[in-house]
């Protein structure tokens, strides 16, 4: 419950410390898991002091226990070991210090660690952190490679030497961190985030040269897995431990079996690329030569055709055909004209022979009344009527005699 206080009526330090102690006492005993970072066993002392640290966070708490409690696990527990302790939180009021009073200590076995890692693996897999579609492709030729590894480690030497042997111009941005122990996780996470924040880093390699299951626990930490999953830069896991894969292998965009293998997968081999370029150049040269040869054969075949060898031959042949057709057309037209002329002459002769003018020339005359009508019968005229008589040489008037 909150305690009332004001600037005019503040609480003494001792009272605040006693209140804190009372609140902590009400917490009761709890089971706590952590990693032993400091261990103090003074000869003859009945109390053992140790520091328990959360490997994933920068948080530690002091633990005290009676010697007989620690002696029961002293043969299998030391600095760096992961343990589970049953302890009651205690508040030391004079110095305002929190500690745990342990009544039981149990080492965390490899089987228990693997079981917990398997549960964490399934949980992260359900979130999709290991999905193949999340994997980012590595650049063909990275200009700057971020390397996270132990200081002066064999892993660092293997990556640098093999990468520079394959491609001498490659550059590295190295971050030396703790790769095991309580400081490994925060340092590796910080290094990965720093390299990912740089725009000039093309790929990040996290390398370590193998180790026991306990040594590789930092690379299965949930905080590190989530940090790698959030990276926008491709990440390569190069933890040289074949039997068991840390969770970093599953979330990374590429897994390498060893640091040397990582160098081979991240950096192309200059000799191999030169050979590939030479092969491609030779292939291109063969393709071009085959194309030119095929086109030359096609051109030679085209030039061998009669139309190409004697291009006027076809024109001359067509000229003769046109001349023959023109001559035939002229003969046909002349024949039609002659026949039409003959038919016209005969028709003209018949027309002339049958025309009234021809009849008049033979001495006949045509009598016409004043209205122009020809007289065809005697009853059509009256006595004394004047008619006009047409003959071949002209016309004259005649009078009808009664």
UniProtKB/TrEMBL annotation:
Protein name, entry field: Exodeoxyribonuclease 7 large subunit
Give the reactions, separated by semicolons, that this protein catalyses.
Answer: Exonucleolytic cleavage in either 5'- to 3'- or 3'- to 5'-direction to yield nucleoside 5'-phosphates
GO terms in the biological process aspect are:
DNA catabolic process
Q: Where in the cell is it found?
A: Cytoplasm
Q: Which residues form the Exonuclease VII large subunit C-terminal domain?
A: 129-350
Q: Identify the main location.
A: cytoplasm
UniProt-listed Enzyme Commission number(s)? 3.1.11.6
| Ranges for domain OB-fold nucleic acid binding | 12-105
What is said about its interaction partners and assembly? Heterooligomer composed of large and small subunits.
UniProt entry tagged with the keyword Hydrolase: yes
Which EC class is this protein assigned?
Answer: hydrolase
Q: Does the keyword Repeat apply?
A: no
Q: Which organism is this protein's natural source?
A: Streptomyces tagetis
InterPro entries, sorted = Exonuc_VII_L (IPR003753), Exonuc_VII_lsu_C (IPR020579), OB-fold_nuc-bd_dom (IPR025824)
Question: What molecular function terms (GO) are annotated for this protein?
Answer: exodeoxyribonuclease VII activity; nucleic acid binding
This protein's superkingdom?
A: Bacteria
């Amino acid at each position: 419950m909150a305690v009332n206080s004001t600037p005019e009526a503040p609480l003494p330090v001792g009272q605040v410390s006693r209140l804190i102690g009372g609140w902590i006492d009400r917490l009761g005993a709890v089971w706590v898991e952590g990693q032993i970072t400091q261990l103090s066993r003074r000869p003859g002392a009945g109390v053992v002091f140790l520091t328990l640290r959360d490997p994933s966070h920068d948080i530690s708490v002091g633990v005290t226990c009676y010697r007989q409690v620690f002696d029961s696990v002293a043969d299998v527990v030391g600095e760096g070991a992961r343990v589970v302790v049953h302890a009651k939180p205690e508040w030391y009021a004079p110095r305002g210090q929190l500690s745990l009073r342990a009544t039981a200590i149990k080492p965390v076995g490899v089987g228990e660690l693997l079981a917990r890692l398997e549960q964490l693996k399934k949980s992260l897999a359900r979130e999709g952190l290991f999905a193949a579609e999340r994997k980012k492709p590595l650049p063909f030729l990275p200009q700057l490679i971020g390397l996270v590894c132990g200081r002066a480690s064999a892993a660092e030497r293997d990556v640098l030497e093999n990468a520079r042997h394959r491609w001498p111009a490659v550059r590295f941005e190295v971050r030396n961190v703790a790769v095991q122990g309580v400081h490994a996780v925060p340092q590796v996470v910080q290094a990965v985030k720093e390299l990912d924040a740089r725009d000039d880093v093309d790929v990040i390699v996290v390398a370590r040269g193998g180790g026991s299951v306990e040594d590789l626990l930092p690379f299965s930490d949930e905080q590190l897995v989530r940090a790698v999953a959030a990276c926008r830069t491709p990440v390569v896991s190069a933890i040289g431990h074949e039997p068991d894969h840390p969770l970093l292998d599953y979330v990374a965009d590429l897994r390498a079996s060893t640091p040397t293998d990582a160098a081979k997968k991240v950096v192309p081999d200059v000799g191999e690329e030169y050979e590939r370029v030479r092969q491609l150049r030779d292939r291109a040269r063969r393709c071009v030569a085959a194309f030119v040869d095929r086109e030359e054969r096609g051109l030679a075949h085209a030039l061998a055709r009669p139309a190409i060898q004697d291009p006027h031959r076809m024109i001359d042949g067509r000229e003769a055909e046109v001349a023959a057709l023109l001559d035939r057309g002229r003969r046909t037209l002349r024949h039609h004209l002659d026949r039409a002329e003959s038919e016209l002459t005969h028709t003209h002769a018949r027309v002339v022979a049958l025309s009234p003018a021809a009849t008049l020339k033979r001495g006949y005359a045509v009598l016409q009344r004043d209205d122009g009508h020809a007289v065809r019968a005697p009853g059509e005229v009256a006595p004394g009527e004047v008619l006009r008589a047409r003959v071949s040489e002209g016309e004259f008037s005649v009078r009808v005699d009664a």
